[in-house]
Each structure stands twice: as structure tokens, then as C-alpha cells.
Design a protein that fits this description.
Largest sheet: none
Mean pLDDT: 85
Order of helices and strands: HHHHH
Helix content: over 70%
Structural class: mainly alpha
Distance between the termini: 77 Å
Number of helices: 5
Shape: rod-shaped
Number of strands: 0
Number of domains: 1
Length: 227
């Protein structure tokens, strides 16, 4: 075999070896990138799923708390209304006893007032209600009158509304975490598909898309509240 041909064959073999080493190095780098993306996507998927589950659980707790407060508020409101109705009924009887000039019955009725209503009744008398037309029509209309049960019902209703709103917000946050989890699952799928391609351009393109979606998902997760 001529010496020139031997040299040419040697050069071709050398070029093929260099191309094989370059291709092998490129595949190693691609595999390292794919493993890294898979690891980050798997961790992000688990984290998002965990946060979504916590949001669902917290929402259930808050909704139950809101329902409990609503029931307690209804009970307190009913009791407060009954106490106010009883006081108002005895106040009407007191007015009738006063018109009948019956001080003993008046005193007995005053003693039956609830402590809060009795205090408001004494303050009402000081407004000179029987001669001053601008005086309040009854003790229950005075700003100083307090009904503990009605105030408790108002407090419980406010807390129930706050808990319900917080639960709704947690539900919405959990839904957003679920959507991000689906996005991370898509990243896992793309990387798995990309590994099956031997054409460099296609594999790079699929991996680039997966990396872009991963970064986008991580940005979204970083802006979501922790549950």
C-alpha cells in the first residue's frame, strides 16, 4: 500500500476518533444537564405538591372554624335578643306601673332588669325623658347600653368572615401550586423524551424548552406564599 494512502487513512481514523470524543463529551454534558434538571424538577414537584396539600388542609380547618363561629354567633345573637326582648317587655310594664302610680311594682320591675339594662335605665332617667322630647325613647337606645351576647355575636361573625376569607385565599394559593406542579411534571416529561433523541439539535431544543419551563415554574413558586 502506498505510503500516502496510509497517511490518509491514519488522518481519517484520527478525525473519526476526535469526532467520537467530541460527541461523547457532548452527550456527557447533555446527560449531566438532564440529570440536574430532573433533580430540580423532582424536588420542585414534591415541594409544590406538599404546599398544595397544606393549603387544602388549612382551608378545611378554616372553613370548619368559620362554621363553628357562625353557629356560636347565632346562639349568642338569639340569647342576646331574648334578653333584650325581656328587658324591653319589663320596661313597658314599668311605664304602665308608673302611669298607674304604683312605685312598688316599678321597683320590682327595675330589679328584674339585667345589670346592663339597669345601668342604661338609670342613665335614661337622667335625660329627663318625660319632659324632654329630644330624650331617647328607651334605655336600649342609649349609646352606653351594652348587650354582651349581641356584642359576642358580632365578634364571632367578624371572626368567621375573616376565617372564611383566609380559607378561600389558601384554596386559591393551593390551586396555583397545583398548576405549577403540572408545569414541573411537563418538565420531567420533556427531559425524558429528549433523552431518546440522538439528533443533537432536537435534543438541545427539547432540553432548552424544559429548562425554560423549569425556570418559569421556579419563579412562580418563589412568588407564592408559604402555607
Amino acid at each position: 500500500m502506498p505510503e500516502g494512502m496510509n497517511v490518509e487513512v491514519a488522518h481519517k481514523l484520527s478525525d473519526q476518533e476526535r469526532a467520537a470524543r467530541v460527541r461523547h463529551r457532548w452527550e456527557e454534558l447533555a446527560e449531566i444537564l438532564e440529570v440536574l434538571v430532573l433533580a430540580i424538577a423532582a424536588i420542585a414537584t414534591a415541594w409544590s405538591g406538599y404546599q398544595a396539600a397544606r393549603g387544602d388542609g388549612h382551608q378545611s380547618v378554616l372553613y370548619a372554624e368559620s362554621s363553628r363561629d357562625r353557629f356560636q354567633a347565632d346562639a349568642a345573637s338569639t340569647l342576646g335578643g331574648q334578653r333584650l326582648a325581656a328587658d324591653a317587655s319589663m320596661f313597658t310594664a314599668w311605664l304602665q306601673a308608673r302611669a298607674d302610680n304604683n312605685p312598688q311594682l316599678q321597683a320590682a320591675l327595675v330589679r328584674r332588669f339585667t345589670p346592663e339594662y339597669r345601668g342604661a335605665f338609670e342613665a335614661w332617667l337622667k335625660t329627663d325623658p318625660f319632659t324632654d322630647p329630644a330624650a331617647p325613647p328607651g334605655p336600649g337606645y342609649l349609646p352606653s347600653y351594652r348587650n354582651p351576647q349581641l356584642e359576642e355575636a358580632e365578634r364571632l361573625n367578624a371572626h368567621a368572615a375573616e376565617a372564611f376569607a383566609e380559607g378561600t385565599a389558601d384554596r386559591e394559593t393551593a390551586d396555583r401550586y397545583v398548576r405549577v406542579t403540572v408545569l414541573f411534571a411537563l418538565v420531567l416529561f420533556l427531559v425524558a423524551v429528549g433523552q431518546r433523541f440522538r439528533v443533537g439539535g432536537v435534543r438541545v431544543g427539547v432540553n432548552a424548552l424544559a429548562v425554560g419551563l423549569l425556570v418559569y415554574g421556579l419563579v412562580i413558586v418563589s412568588t407564592l406564599p408559604r402555607l
